[in-house]
Amino acid sequence: MKLSDYVLKYLAERGIKHVFLITGSAVANLVDSFRNIKEIKYICTQHEQAAAMAAEAYSRLTKNLGAAMATSGPGATNLITGICCAFFDSIPVIYITGQVNTYESKREKKVRQVGFQETDIVSVVKPITKYAVLVDDPKKIKFYLDQAIYLAKSGRPGPVLLDLPMDVQRSEINPEELEGFIPSDAGGSLTATDYKINQIIDLLKAAQRPILLFGAGVKLANAEKEAGQLINKLNIPFTLSWGAIDLAGHDHPLFAGTFGVSAGRPGNFAVANADLILAVGSRLDTRQTGGKPETFAREAKKIIVDIEAAEIFKDRGLKPDLGIVADAKEFIGRLLGGLNNFRTPNTSEWLKKIKIWKDKYPLCPPACAKQSAKVNMYYFMKILAEELKSDDIIITDTGSNLIWTLQGFCVKDGQRLFSAFGNSPMGYSLPAAIGASIALNNKPIICIIGDGGLQMNIQELQTIYHYKLPIKIFVINNNAYGLIKQFQDIWFNSHYEAACPEKGCSFPDFLKVGQAYGLKTEMINNHEELRSKLKKALASNEAILCNVEARDDEKIIPKLEFGKPIEDAAPLLDRDEFKKEMIIKPLD
Question: Does any domain span residue 182?
């Protein structure tokens, strides 16, 4: 059997139905093998970066491996930004690159290159993969594939890469003679002993203002059901990191809101004033804690549960009172088992206070709806959320559009809302929407992207057109790098260098561009036409690109400025009002 045929058959047998790729001579044998292995298909993107990102989103939606291929040299290096997305968000993806023939490789020679387009991609990506290997022996192909997939999906998941030289791809092998990889039984890493579970229960019993905090690790562990059971059992408020923003519907009576440097005030007030935080599957980085982690929930006992000890004990100012190394699903299961006779503490006053915060500081204040010129982004997110169905998939990009979405979009139970949170590159949401649609049998996907982000991967409009994917693209057009301008307001006295047309950063007519790619287009100018045009776009069974006109000076509100605790975001509340809302002693 030809080795390239074997690789595709192997992937297909593990449930991978699609591979995102761009062909090239160094990967041509693998691409040609798709003719022989009918159980798996390739999807052609226009850029390898898009293939890498599409594969990452494909993995998120299938809860299986995503896969992407690229040729050697520039093809392989173009994958890197997408590989970073998978690595930092712990998404299992297998990347396969072509490489020059083994007899053309520079190996240990003190030269830069021997074969055409030769690049040591394995060394390049080792810091951003769980496993990367050059397959230079055809007889080891099964071993390498087994090990790669095991590592991609075990423990904290992540991307892996196999680099296949051309002569290895075309080798003839006997599958019956191949030796596989047998993982060592290292046993579980759970440190949630009965003693620690009892400690947690005692802390929960004693707490007056407890809060559950769920992160992306809960979703990676497929522990959504268990998290819901824990919420219902404890009957205490919960908050979500952005990586877990779709873990529950935001209309849940116990949902306090999200938290972090760009989150709304209710969730941040709740976290700041808690006396006990049980954080499961969240690494609590500085985007969540603020630039001074020692100020985060400073009067609360903190129980932090993570699958990696290094994430718990980072020594960056946030010190857990109890750290537990555990898979989220296993931990929650153990905790639920210990709660059989648990009596929920009386948290009625605490829940009442959180409701006051949510009513007083809504996602979309009434003033947003009254904006007369162009479209207010908080109002846009409110209306979009109202119009979408409970099984819709929403993917947002980065910059202002990311924050407006995650601040202002009220998630319904059953929806998916995500982005590449850790790496957060401009241009992610368009290829991610492609991967998501392919993963779900050409399902319509909601893609939210900025005018700057779309320019990074605008060529993928051709992929959408070619495969007839019914993706709804909402381009948030403020004619600028809006988040950078807001940063420049704070740090550079509003000198908008390289961030707006007057300073060299300009944008095309996106409707004309969309039409040139064969897509339907729509302009959304103001609030008066917003809902009707949204309904029209969402009702279409085709792809559509909607240009949403935003003011070039619209800000992210609220947004934390460096040095402040997360409960004290800009624009600062009146000091008397702020002190009135605080239960613990405020920091001025």
Answer: no
Per-residue pLDDT of the chain (588 residues; tens, 9 = 90+): 999 999 999 999 999 999 999 999 999 999 999 999 999 999 999 999 999 999 999 999 999 999 999 999 999 999 999 999 999 999 999 999 999 999 998 888 888 988 888 899 999 999 999 999 999 999 999 999 999 999 999 999 999 999 999 999 999 999 999 999 999 865 555 677 889 999 999 999 999 999 999 999 999 999 999 999 999 999 999 999 999 999 999 999 999 999 999 999 999 999 999 999 999 999 999 999 999 999 999 999 999 999 999 999 887 889 999 999 999 999 999 999 999 989 888 999 999 999 999 999 999 999 999 999 999 999 999 999 999 999 999 999 999 999 999 999 999 999 999 999 999 999 999 999 999 999 999 999 999 999 999 999 999 999 999 999 999 999 999 999 999 999 999 999 999 999 999 999 999 999 999 999 999 999 999 999 999 999 999 999 999 999 999 999 999 999 999 899 999 999 999 999 999 999 999 997
Per DSSP, helices labelled H in 63-162 are 74-77, 80-88, 121-125, 141-153
- The answer to whether the CB of 541 falls within 8 A of the CB of 385 is no
CATH number at residue 393: 3.40.50.970
Return d(Cα 369, Cα 302) in angstroms, integer: 39
Cα–Cα–Cα angle for 363, 225, 398, nearest 5°? 40
Query: How many domains does the chain contain in total?
Result: 3
Q: What is the pTM of this model?
A: 0.96
User: Within a 10 A sphere around the Cβ of 547, how many other Cβ atoms?
Assistant: 22
Q: Establish if 187 belongs to a structural domain.
A: no
127 and 229 in a single domain? The answer is no
Identify whether residues 509 and 380 lie together within a single domain: yes
Please check whether residues 20 and 138 belong to one and the same domain. yes
- Asked if 524 and 546 count as a contact pair (C-beta separation under 8 A), the reply is yes
